[in-house]
């Protein structure tokens, strides 16, 4: 009996990845189609001067050098979300770090937040975890008059609506809260903004900026930067913070110049070599890895399936995590997505396809 139990333990451990890192992916909730945006394509597909209705060299003219395998999409569309999160699940990714605009009602923030919430619903369907990356810079961009009061309102919202979810990622026994900065709030302002949280979140900032974020900060996450691995090597080797989240990315190929938007213009050649390098470094140095990004088409850091690269990045992740899924499952997820769109007006077919998707995404759950 005892040896049987021991044997099943051995078998259980054999199904786990060889190494221990948890893989998360940074996700943007900010894409809109004409159907979801009052008849005009969302600005993240167009920037200042592109029109996805034009087909150029066989692909929709979007503000990116890369094109989603399923075409330009709406971030709040549950079929899109299931396709995206299904791929993450099959790659062995644990969940998402979701870019979150806050509760300020300016520009497209309210729509982004609504999409973020549709994605959070999707994480529950897929059995993935999530954590929020707060965009404190939005307080500047929206010229919020009382940034501290707005920041506190945002934290209260997170606490009542997201931190309560079973699948919100906890690190050191508290919800993990990432800030994409600090950019608008600094030093003691963060102590005031985080005051409403009980328990305090495990609060982490962008790399090498923790000292600008008050007393509650517990760590940092690395990000893409112009010097590629130079700053990263130093940060991994020397930065002494209690929560250290590594980064992996496929390059940086921004469309800002062509698209007529302001933004960082440095360049890191996009492709498998850059991903593999940053991926290996992250695995060597940290237990929590954030892949940047799932779908920032504007900056050219995408790992989701594109017409140009297919599932090449996901294949590398899938191999590392020891996921039982295969490339064939990626293909099935995409087939199901296109079938759902084809039969969008047929409730019977739609139900069959949703069931098929659900079965695929959960087929190994009981074994892990
Ligand atoms: C949608 O477009 C119509 C016509 O251009 C306009 O009157 C309306 O205010 C727009 N609605 C929103 C929510 O932008
Ligand atoms: C890192 O910081 C901790 C806590 O401040 C300290 O105890 C430890 O000695 C530091 N380690 C290094 C290598 O500096
Ligand atoms: C990734 O890098 C590792 C170690 O540097 C190397 O062994 C492997 O062949 C590379 N894989 C790809 C797909 O480039
Ligand atoms: C990762 O660590 C291994 C073993 O120490 C080393 O051989 C390899 O060069 C490292 N890879 C990177 C990309 O730092």
TrEMBL record:
Places the protein is found: Golgi apparatus membrane
Principal subcellular localization: Golgi
Ranges annotated as spanning the membrane: none
GO cellular component: Golgi membrane
Gene3D superfamilies cross-referenced by the UniProt entry: Glycosidases
Secretion signal span: 1-20
UniProt keyword Nucleotide-binding, yes or no: no
GO molecular function terms noted in the UniProt entry: alpha-mannosidase activity
Keywords recorded for this protein, A-Z: Golgi apparatus, Hydrolase, Membrane, Signal, Signal-anchor, Transmembrane, Transmembrane helix
Membrane topology: Single-pass type II membrane protein
Family indicated by similarity: Belongs to the glycosyl hydrolase 99 family.
Protein name: Uncharacterized protein
Taxonomic lineage: Eukaryota, Metazoa, Ecdysozoa, Arthropoda, Hexapoda
């Amino acid at each position: 009996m005892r040896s049987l139990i021991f044997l099943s333990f051995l078998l259980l451990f054999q199904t786990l990845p060889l190494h221990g890192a948890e893989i998360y992916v940074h996700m943007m909730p900010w894409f809109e189609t004409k159907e979801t945006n009052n008849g005009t394509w969302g600005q993240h597909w167009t920037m200042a001067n592109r029109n996805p209705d034009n087909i150029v060299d066989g692909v929709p003219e979007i503000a990116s050098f890369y094109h989603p395998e399923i075409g330009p999409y709406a971030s709040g569309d549950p079929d899109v979300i299931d396709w995206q999160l299904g791929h993450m699940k099959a790659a062995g990714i644990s969940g998402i770090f979701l870019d979150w605009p806050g509760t300020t009602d300016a520009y497209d923030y309210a729509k982004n937040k609504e999409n973020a919430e549709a994605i959070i619903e999707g994480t529950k369907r897929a059995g993935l975890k999530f954590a929020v990356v707060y965009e404190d810079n939005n307080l500047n961009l929206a010229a919020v008059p009382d940034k501290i009061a707005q920041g506190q309102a945002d934290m209260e919202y997170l606490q009542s609506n997201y931190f309560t979810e079973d699948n919100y990622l906890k690190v050191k026994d508290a919800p993990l809260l990432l800030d994409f900065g600090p950019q608008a709030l600094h030093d003691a302002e963060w102590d005031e903004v985080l005051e409403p949280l009980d328990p305090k979140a495990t609060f982490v900032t962008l790399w090498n900026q923790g000292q600008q974020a008050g007393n509650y900060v517990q760590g940092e996450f690395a990000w893409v930067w112009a010097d590629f691995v130079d700053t990263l090597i130093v940060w991994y080797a020397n930065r002494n913070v209690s929560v250290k989240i590594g980064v992996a990315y496929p390059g940086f190929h921004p469309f800002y110049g062509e698209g007529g938007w302001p933004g960082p213009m440095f360049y890191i050649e996009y492709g498998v070599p850059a991903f593999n390098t940053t991926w290996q470094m992250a695995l060597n140095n940290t237990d929590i890895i954030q892949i940047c990004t799932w779908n920032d088409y504007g900056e050219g850091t995408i790992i989701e399936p594109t017409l140009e690269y297919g599932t090449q990045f996901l294949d590398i992740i899938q191999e590392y995590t020891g996921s039982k899924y295969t490339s064939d499952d990626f293909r099935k997820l995409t087939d199901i997505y296109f079938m759902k769109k084809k039969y969008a007006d047929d409730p019977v077919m739609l139900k069959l396809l949703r069931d098929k998707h659900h079965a695929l995404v959960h087929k190994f759950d009981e074994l892990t």
